[in-house]
Amino acid sequence: xxxxxxxxxxxxxxxxxxxxxxxxxxxxxxxxxxxxxxxxxxxxxxxxxxxxxxxxxxxxxxxxxxxxxxxxxxxxxxxxxxxxxxxxxxxxxxxxxxxxxxxxxxxxxxxxxxxxxxxxxxxxxxxxxxxxxxxxxxxxxxxxxxxxxxxxxxxxxxxxxxxxxxxxxxxxxxxxxxxxxxxxxxxxxxxxxxxxxxxxxxxxxxxxxxxxxxxxxxxxxxxxxxxxxxxxxxxxxxxxxxxxxxxxx
Amino acid sequence: xxxxxxxxxxxxxxxxxxxxxxxxxxxxxxxxxxxxxxxxxxxxxxxxxxxxxxxxxxxxxxxxxxxxxxxxxxxxxxxxxxxxxxxxxxxxxxxxxxxxxxxxxxxxxxxxxxxxxxxxxxxxxxxxxxxxxxxxxxxxxxxxxxxxxxxxxxxxxxxxxxxxxxxxxxxxxxxxxxxxxxxxxxxxxxxxxxxxxxxxxxxxxxxxxxxxxxxxxxxxxxxxxxxxxxxxxxxxxxxxxxxxxxxxxxxxxxxxxxxxxxxxxxxxxxxxxxxxxxxxxxxxxxxxxxxxxxxxxxxxxxxxxxxxxxxxxxxxxxxxxxxxxxxxxxxxxxxxxxxxxxxxxxxxxxxxxxxxxxxxxxxxxxxxxxxxxxxxxxxxxxxxxxxxxxxxxxxxxxxxxxxxxxxxxxxxxxxxxxxxxxxxxxxxxxxxxxxxxxxxxxxxxxxxxxxxxxxxxxxxxxxxxxxxxxxxxxxxxxxxxxxxxxxxxxxxxxxxxxxxxxxxxxxxxxxxxxxxxxxxxxxxxxxxxxxxxxxxxxxxxxxxxxxxxxxxxxxxxxxxxxxxxxxxxxxxxxxxxxxxxxxxxxxxxxxxxxxxxxxxxxxxxxxxxxxxxxxxxxxxxxxxxxxxxxxxxxxxxxxxxxxxxxxxxxxxxxxxxxxxxxxxxxxxxxxxxxxxxxxxxxxxxxxxxxxxxxxxxxxxxxx
Lengths: 249, 703
What we know:
The complex is a heterodimer.
Chain A: H1 19-31, H2 39-48, E1 58-61, H3 71-81, E2 83-84, E3 92-95, E4 105-108, H4 117-121, E5 127-130, E6 136-139, H5 149-153, E7 162-164, E8 169-171, H6 193-197, E9 203-206
Antiparallel strand pairs in A: 1-9, 3-4, 5-6, 7-8
Chain B: E1 9-14, E2 19-24, H1 34-47, E3 64-67, E4 82-87, E5 97-102, H2 106-112, E6 117-121, E7 128-133, E8 136-141, H3 150-160, E9 170-172, E10 175-177, E11 182-185, H4 188-191, E12 199-201, E13 205-207, H5 212-218, E14 221-227, E15 232-233, H6 237-250, H7 315-326, H8 330-333, E16 340-342, E17 354-356, H9 361-370, H10 393-405, H11 410-413, H12 416-423, H13 450-458, H14 466-469, H15 489-498, H16 515-520, H17 526-543, H18 571-580, H19 586-607, E18 633-637, E19 642-646, H20 654-668, H21 679-684, H22 688-696
Parallel strand pairs in B: 1-6, 7-14
Antiparallel strand pairs in B: 1-2, 3-4, 3-6, 4-5, 7-8, 9-10, 11-12, 11-14, 12-13, 16-17, 18-19
Helix pairs in contact in B: 1-19, 6-18, 7-10, 13-17, 17-19, 17-20
């Protein structure tokens, strides 16, 4: 309903993000260039963090092993919108093919923030925490008035909510909770179109809140243990003159 | 209203008139997309006006088209190709209408911008590039980009926008994208109108064969840049996702071809859009050759034993970057290609002790130098090349630079191998040393898989369809794979026959090449002609028009499948129907391919093609024709049973090829005396207008 302030439903998971966790991590976070922009808003956010239950699931990525095939973006847009449009994908892979590895690929995913400023600042309650969907932060299209406040509120660079220029409304990653064009049941604890399609195992959904204090919290090594060559050692030689082993019968 | 899968409109740019025109794709959909649509556009805008002779690829009237297909941009694995078409300056002796293609994200971005492709005619009066941002198309000044390498050109175009790519959402009139423009560009080799100039997109997604970089150069067109925010309509979004899961579950991660990937297990793949199979055609992690296609360019400076016992360990890696940055067709200009083959078992063979897989320009130049045809004391000075430094990185760099800038002997080399040989007065080498197809492209595994060779003969270039080379013993070719099971020859051919509808003829795969069996069921038979025609129709539609990649399609056989099935003929219509929703069958696709192929034939005919010209170059008729065979063990039917045989000694006879040609023209519906398409064939293919035009020019095949 327009004008209604977002609320945390009573049944929401009470797992919260502690103020201390946020503040302690702040200094490290600022060391990361992309997080520098967080600073002005961080103190304000810290005051309010206890109001929000944590999301039960988080999308994390592995940009060092991403193949840059955009399958995740295609799948995201297809599952949510029924058409393919890179601008509508809630996962945004950016490729700079002429830059050196690993700076040639950057994966921008919604962090399902412990203190979601996009939710906090939404004037209509469209951007809300969905208790029915594991507290994922998602946007109710009916309530969105297209004011872009969530986009402006997102502290990350580039911002993670998506502007749907067709509908003049904002959207964001809901971990596939609302996917009318997906034959599987989507949502936290269920399926995600981007994760299942990724041929490089570069996307994964985890339940533990990723480390907020450095850039490796959401972008991490997701590859299965590498196969290594078995250790080779020369067979032990019997000393000269030693009796030979009896042949096996 | 265009069918889903198509963006719906085609961009036509006339650089002479500085004119930008929008064409509706719907009118051209019957040609399938990609190369098919480009062929139809060429017919309409270049042939029908009748105001030039269709002979010079560098003429402003030539049209170069970059066209996507309906599968491009949909996320279908192996579905990201952009086809390049136009008169090719590399083709010899006539610069035939030809094609090439490249991957990366260019085609996908073209679709995201709402275009199925761009066709360019005319010549700008100064260097320009075409900039596409959704519907907004501009012709931009490229004077400051002239002389830059392909990589620098892309960097400079990105810089011009002033965007912090990757950090800043780009505002395109209220629509936002985080993507940087996809750019395809020529390098110095194109600017200098070499016939060996490629088009390069990204680090190394390139359209090399055909020399279309030079066509860009002749138009003063440096690059095309595109970025978009449009939506691509999909007929069955759920079905498309399900199709990918189905494909993944059966032919998991490239299993359709049994590819292990070139890059090795530790490297990180740099995939084309939507692909992400395990092939690792490109890699992110290398110091040199990052995002470069691991094809001919990755072995650019490899040498046969007789040329050099060794090369610097980093030569190939550095060579890859040289080719991409200068925009040089590595395949045409390399020295050996990925491997060489021993020839010492036949002391009479003129190339000893090894024959390079690609007897390309570099190899032939070295041979000519060693024979004293060029170099000191001859008419042809080698400068700026110092042959005493051969097999060094410095030599390689000067070699590439000389070609790209037409400097010194590079001016001669820039004409390509065939014209280089002609200039030296050595066209007789086409029978022995200079192993080129009929149309000036180097041989490329075309024998003993004769359908590849026949394809070369009837088309205008090396058809470069690796699917053919898989049609050997499982485990022997690109696509056979091992799988742990031993396939009898009869099991193999029957499996292949099951996968090639509607004919399902096991004799398509008989490579009997001697005696009467060669004429009855073998390489000169009607079965082989039928297979060649089917194969041409297949790739003209599914690969060059729809947008499927040669590395994944077609796949008739997969030893990892319990029945030995590759994903052809199931995957193609399943993906296409999910995207397009038009209930097309595999056979429908073959029919569209026939239409496109026949229209291309009409263009060839207008350029002067006749049955009399369609003869293999000399070496195809001599022992040694198949010494570069990648998969020499082929099925042979002796009249009563099938067995594998080593076909390394296979070569053609003129009489046999003549019989095969008659079968082939009959099957295609072309006149058997001239090779011209008949009215009935053209009308059956819904191309009455083509029949009328050919008739008006006395080029219609008699019924």
